[in-house]
Every structure is written in C-alpha cells, then in structure tokens.
Amino acid sequence: MQDTASAQPVAKYRKDYTAPSHTISTLDLLFKLHNTDTLVTATSQVTSNNGATELALVGEQLSLTEVLVDGKPWADYVSTDESLTISNLPATFELTITTQINPSANTALEGLYLSDGAFCTQCEAEGFRRITYFLDRPDVLAKYTTTIEADKAEFPFLLSNGNKLAQGDLENGRHWVKWEDPHPKPSYLFALVAGDFDQLTDTFTTCSGREVALEIFVDKGNVDRAHHAMLSLKNSMKWDEERFGLEYDLDIYMIVAVDFFNMGAMENKGLNVFNSKFVLADQSTATDKDYLGIEAVIGHEYFHNWTGNRVTCRDWFQLSLKEGLTVFRDQEFSSDLGSRAVNRINHVRIIRGPQFAEDASPMSHPIRPEKVIEMNNFYTLTVYEKGSEVIRMIHTLLGEQAFQAGIKLYFERHDGTAATCDDFVAAMQDASGVDLTQFKLWYSQSGTPTVTVVDSYDAQNKTYTLDISQRTEPTATQQEKHALHIPFDVELYRNDGSVITPIIEGKEHSTLLQLTQDSQRFVFEQVDEAPTPSLLREFTAPVKLEYSYTEQQLVLLMKCATNEVSRWDAGQTLMSLYIKEAVSNGTDITLSDDVLNSYKALLTDTTLDSAFVAEALTLPPHSEVSGWFDVIDVDGISKALTDLKLTLAKGLEAELVNAYQSFTSESYDISHPSIAKRSLRNICLSYLSCLPQHQDLAKALFDGSDNMTDTMGAMSAANQCDLACREALMTAYSERWAHDGLVMDKWFMLQGIKPSADALEGVKAAMEHSAFSMQNPNRVRNLIGAFFANPYGFHAIDGSGYRFAGEMLAQLNSTNPQVASRLIDPMLKFARYDETRKSLMRKELEILRDTPDLAKDLFEKVEAALK
Ligand code: B3K
Ligand code: ZN
C-alpha cells in the first residue's frame, strides 16, 4: 500500500526520546550490485521490547519488492515514501525485506552511490534508510553479516565491515564475498565498497601482540600517494595504546579513498571511507598542511573505533559525545607528534573565528542540540570544535591522570552500548571526585560567553585585584542564560618579564582560577609592583575576553609570556587594537616603534620555532575580524587588513628579506623542522610580495619549486597581491595538473578567493575548466565555497555575488542538498551587514525559501535565518 509523504519537514526534539520498540540482534544483508538497479535483501532477527505488535521502519527512495515474516510472505504492512509499518507481528520473528535501489542516480552521495565507477556507501547520519527499511537510529545495535555479489572484472574488490568469511565465483562473470562483523553496531556504521583499486598493505602489531592487517585502497596508479596515510594510521594505533590504553579490536583495518564524498571521512567499523583529499599525498601534489590534515583525519577516524563505535550515541542529539571527544583526541595526537603550540593556535583560530560566528548566527545551538530537522545540519563547528573545547575544559579541571581514570570508567560502564553526554560527564565526575554539576551547563547552553576583567593594584598593601564577570548574550533560540563553570588560567608578570608567584589568601595558588558566578573577585597578595596579567592562557575556555590591555602590556607579553600560545595571543590582541581603530575611524594604520620592534624580535630570534613565528605573523582573517563588530563593514575591514599588512611589510622589510633568504633548502622532507622553515618562508613571501621591489620573488620560488608547499606559497602570494606573474603561474599550474581534480582544487580555491572585483568572472570561467564538476563536492567547495568567503566578490555591492550564490544553491538543492546546506552558511548571517547588502542577501534567501522541492537541509536554515 502506498501513501504520499507530508510536505512540511518536521522537527525532532531531544526531550522526546523513547527507547526503540524492538531489538534487532542480527542483520544479514545480501547485495546484488548493478549500477541502476541493485537488489538488497535484509534479513533480521527481531524481538519486541514492550509487547508491541507493530514495527515502524524508516526508508527513503526505496522500491519495495517483498516482505517476509518467518520466511512467509506478509501482507500486513503500509509503506509510504519514508516508512514501512508492519502489523500483527509475533513477539520474536525473522524479518526479510527486499528492496531495489538505483545507485547511479544517487547524486546526494548518501546511502549507496557510485564514485567514479566504484560503489560506496555513506550512512551517517541517516543514510542507511536509503539502502533498506530499518530501525535507522544509533541505539539499535545488531551483528551484521554482508554478502556482496558483483561483476568480477569491473569490481574485483568487494568490501564490508569486519572479517572476510568466504568468497566464490558465480555465473556470468560475477563473484561474491561474505563479511562478518563480530561487534554489534548501529546502522550508521555500516559500509560497503565495490570497485577496482590499487592496494597498499602493511601490518600493525598491537600491544597485546596481535597482528592487524592494514589495507589502503586507492584509484589505480595512486598507490605511491598513500604512504603518508599508512604511516599516520600506524602512528594513530600506537598513540591510542600509549596515551589512552586503547587497542584495536579486529584483525583487519581498511581505508578506501574515493573522489566523490560529502565530508572528510567516515569511521565505519573496520572499513573507513575517506575523501581522497585526506589520503593522497606526495611532495609534488600536497602541501605540508595537507600532510598534517591527513595525519589528523586518519587519526580522528581511527580514534572513533573506541569513542564512537565501541561506545556510540544513544540518539543524534548526543553527537558531541563521540565527535567532541574524538576531536579532542585527534588534537592531542597531532600535538603529541608535532608542535603543541601551533596546533593549539590553529584550533583557537577556528573557535574564535567561525565557531563564534556560528554561535552568533540564526543556527546557533548548544553542543548538544535540543531540536533538529535535518541531522546532517548539526555536524557543525559547535558540535565538533566547541565540543572538543568542552572536553578540553574537563581535562583542564581534572588533570591528565584523573581524566584518563574517567575514560577508563566510561568504557567499563558503557562499552558495547549507546550512551549519552550525561553518561560521559558522570564517569568523569565519579572517577575524579570533581563536581561537574554546574559544568554540565556547557552542554545545554548555546552562545559565546564574554568574560570581562577589571583590575586594580594597591601599592600600599601590595595586592592586585581581578574583578571577573561573565555574561552570555541571548541566542536565536535561547533567551535565558546562566553562569557557567569556566576554567580561567592567569599568570602575572613584572615589568622585567619575570613571573609573580600567585598567592591568594596567604597560600600559593595554581594559575587556574575557577569562575562559577556572574562576578567574582580574586585578590593576589605580595605583588611587589603593578603587574601585567596574561589572561585566559592556553585559551582554557571558549569565551570572548574583555580587558583593556595597553599596547605596552601586550608588547611585554609578546616578548616574555612563558608559553607560546600566550605570546601569539598578545600579538593578535595588539593587531586587533589597530584593526578596530582603523575600521571604526576609517584611518590609516601607523605602527609604533615598540610594536614593530616586537615583531622584529620574533623574526630575528633563532631560538624560536619558525612555525610559531609564522603563526605570530599571520593576521586574523576577514571572517574573524567581522565577528568583532555589531555591523560588519566589509570594505572597511578589507582596507584595514590590507593596510596593516603593507605597514608591517614596510616596517619589517629588512628582517623579512633576511628570514626569507636565510632559508636553507636541503632535500624536501615532511619533518616538523622542515615544515616550520617552509611556513616561515611562505609567510615572509606573502608580506614581501606587497612591496613593489620584491614582486619577482614569487615567480622565482614557483619556477624553482620541487614541492607543492612552495608552489602554493608562490601562487597564493601572486593571487593575494595580484602580481604581474599571476596569470602565467595559474596557467602553468593548470596545464600541468588539469588531469587531476584533487590537485586542481588548489587552483579552483585561488580563483574563488581572488581579492578583486572581477573574482566572479574568474569563478564562472573556472567552472568551464575540464577538471570542474558540479557533481563533485570537493570541486564545488574549493571554487564556489571559497568564493562565498570572498569579501570582494561574494559581497560585491551590486549584489552579483549573492545572485550567483542563490543560483548555485538552487542547483545544488536538487542534486546534493548536504553540500548546498554547508555552502549557505555565509548567507544566513545577512542581518549583520549594511542595509544594502542585508536586503540583497535577504532577497536571495526569500527566493530559495519559495523554491519548489526545497530540501529539508536548506529549509531548516533558511527558515531560521528569515524568522
Ligand atoms: N562521523 C563522520 C561525519 C558524518 C557526517 C554526516 N553528515 C566523520 C567524522 O566525524 O569522523
Ligand atoms: Zn568524527
């Protein structure tokens, strides 16, 4: 029986959670793979949990062939576009459902689809329902067996989760393979891949002495580009044993790299599917940043095997349970293997820039959302990155040892089950004895808290007082806010740069202050001179800090702060003073000698890590600066940033030239010291290219480059400063790499961000490039997504950028709503701009709102923005 689906998307609420009506102990899947009509037979052992005789399954874009109960045809069911409800069922039964699907028509890349001729799946969050009717929710854990049948010549590799059980040949040149996953899992962790690949294999011996087979599958001819991924995987396995005591639990770990993928990668049990961007790298095609990205994402997916797979989420509102924790773990992995300070700086940038912007947007939500229309819309910076900051704060409050005791208890209690964020916090609290009752508010309260600090020094009594208050502004869906438990690290400095021991109430105090009330006073004793405070050291909480630093204090901290993150932060704050003034008053920037000298000191201090110096020289991006103002002055911010860069370039010219030239080029390697040297050289180049007398450096670097980091350094400088050589470099690059879309993405990205009024023309021309395809999410993100962040092109005052955006979003709405929904975010912030831009953007959103067949991904965001 067939019904029509309802028109208006409906929201789900966290408070409405109910346990599943049935338990599914095993699921046996049979796939007969054909490009346009694949047959899926799903046989499950089902038990009613509460005497229910009706089982409501979900499914999308399926054509139902047959329903059997205990092997017999069953007519007692109703099916709609989105469900299959079976009635009059016994308490325990075997259910067999056969459906037909069309992978070749699947442009949304959710469920089973074709990527360049290979079958692959993406099931998180709710893609499994595009494969078969099921209880497609994370708290239904079953043991899976999967049999795959396909043409042997075209699809020699047939892969699924777990261990290979058996295989054989069939008639008509087809073959089959059967897999069994011994670990019960939710449907979102199911994976299937079928195709022809090159394979890189290795082994890892676990701490208990078991040998695990490691296999990475890549497109034919790309195996030489998979070595860094393999090394990263082995490093991840070792690190998780050493730092978290967690060992791998299957005999095989497979990674498949595909070109058509909506996100970075997916942690399917034993069979990760990766966007090829996070697998493929060699010296000539990948930048150092790409190498580090591969290490982080390989680590992230591997770490999910415990935090996500062994303990999964009870419902999707708990997503941060696995994502926040796993981001924290991958950040720690990268920090332990590389530079902790540089890693921290980069994550602080993400929080202060795009995450704070998300908090201030109409889609603002707590790390554990309360209401969801389309779950894919909640794989956000808030759930991931702020979620990780929340775990980091627990780590700061407990310390490493108690934190690890909490992790251990969490696994003792919840291994093999679907848990909640509350379960995690309870384990942390019980293992440490630290009261986290108030802390839990971080899970339910949205928005960015502001911490305001006012200080005073009493020379007579030698006391220094910090009056610290906190407030969180109301957000789109949450008016009332409460005081949070905020770890707030502080250090005090004398004018000579030495550290003052913190003494509070007669006793030496740790540098960590705990903020729990709207306002609090901390009195430091035996302070022999008016100190300079280093506040929110290491960014111990994801908050905005308000304190009236003087230029002199910041110069002191840049030089003397005991940790690099604080030194970097002082430099950023110093720049922000100049930028804010220039934007507010429309004035030109003149830097004092003190400021210039502190940058000179950084550039000439050979004891410093060059990667840190490069970070210290990096200006906050336009998007971050936009967040400092109530009304965003697009052009004023661009002007201030360009002006500041030029002023620094002029003031530091000799030191920049010297640092640029002192680079010694040994043969290319990706060790951290080499990465650091290249990053410093490239930031120097970006400054020097602003000065007419150094505009030939970029071309010389490009011509002599034997690696992608330098090639991109040269091209970025040429693009940023619109150097005379820009066209020639872009052409040479495109001629060399036109055959490789992944490498061309860097070229597309440069077209997208070109800082000039003709950026849109360049983007439109690039869309005609043979390597471009609107079907490929990487291409779309690099060209069109980059353009959406272009203050010159996207925000062009004639509205041409917004019109183009509207057209692209409408097109993607019908082919790949998930990608469309990621791209739309800059448009949602329209209310923050000047009246002209505001009404132009709003108009595009209104056109989208009225689009027939608007996908629920876009519906949810457009509605929230226009409300
Ligand atoms: N868990 C996946 C993301 C799935 C996104 C679904 N729209 C990758 C990760 O976070 O590791
Ligand atoms: Zn993840």
From TrEMBL:
Reported function: Aminopeptidase N is involved in the degradation of intracellular peptides generated by protein breakdown during normal growth as well as in response to nutrient starvation.
NCBIfam families (UniProt xref): pepN_proteo
Domain Peptidase M1 alanyl aminopeptidase Ig-like fold: residue ranges: 447-547
Species of provenance: Vibrio ezurae NBRC 102218
Domain (Aminopeptidase N-like N-terminal) ranges: 40-189
Cofactor: Zn(2+)
UniProt-listed Enzyme Commission number(s): 3.4.11.2
UniProt GO MF annotations: alanyl aminopeptidase activity; metallopeptidase activity; zinc ion binding
Residues annotated as domain Peptidase M1 membrane alanine aminopeptidase: 232-439
Entry protein name: Aminopeptidase N
Top-level division of the source organism's lineage: Bacteria
Residues of the Peptidase M1 alanyl aminopeptidase C-terminal domain: 552-866
Entry similarity comment: Belongs to the peptidase M1 family.
Gene Ontology biological process terms from the UniProt entry: proteolysis
Keywords, comma-separated and alphabetical: Aminopeptidase, Hydrolase, Metal-binding, Metalloprotease, Protease, Zinc
Catalysis performed (reactions): Release of an N-terminal amino acid, Xaa-|-Yaa- from a peptide, amide or arylamide. Xaa is preferably Ala, but may be most amino acids including Pro (slow action). When a terminal hydrophobic residue is followed by a prolyl residue, the two may be released as an intact Xaa-Pro dipeptide
Protease listed as a keyword: yes
Record Gene3D superfamilies: 2.60.40.1840, 3.30.2010.30, Neutral Protease Domain 2, Peptidase M1, alanyl aminopeptidase, C-terminal domain, tricorn interacting facor f3 domain
